[in-house]
Amino acid sequence: MDPYAWTWNGEALILVPSLAVAYALAVRVYPASRARVAAFAVALGLMLAVFATPVQTIALHYLLTAHLLQNVVMAEWAPALIVLALPPALAGALGRASVVRALTRPTVALPLWLGTYFAWHVPRAYDFALDHPVTVLHLEHLSYLVAGIALWWPALRQGLANGAKAAYVFAAFVLGSPLGLLLALLPSAVYRTYRDGPGLWGLGPLSDQQLAGLTMAGEQAVVFFAVFAVFFLRFLREEEARGTTLSRG
Prior knowledge:
mainly alpha; globular
């Protein structure tokens, strides 16, 4: 198969259009700012970029690095943008639903995201999904999206204090980053699909796995630390303002 073949699949043909229609209908009732609409558009654009381009072909047959890029988009980047894209009134209405309220509790959302990430990266589960690209692989990507939205909701939507949000995001980074580091440090390639595959760009199976793991760990360090820094600085400013008020009193 040509590694640069363009392809279409369920994520590009069904999921992205369904999300676009749902959002368009929702913002007719709950108007959204241009910034929120832009965030949602970027989220859908990222999904299309990794599922409706040769990235999909490379991810299915050639490189683990490309597949982990898809996973990062579905589990981290797109969910964060989708949560940011929700107008406050819509987020409030959704947050009152019992299922959403249960899944987005910090003590549930973080374990759900971690469990989803780690479970799908078990070699047997990973290869099984790749062996069933029309069924199981779509379930994997959908589960990443749901778990990712649950993960980001407490940090970007719930009324937690900035200090609590900073601690929550830091915990997500500390607990999630070992997965990428583990893949980078393993002495042999663990995923049969790529171990027995043709490879690409001169990358052998182990080099591909090491690159994928390092890229994943580095991406998480940048994204999660950036969000952590925002909330931590807000927390420090609040503490400084509180201290100033107390000293004056």
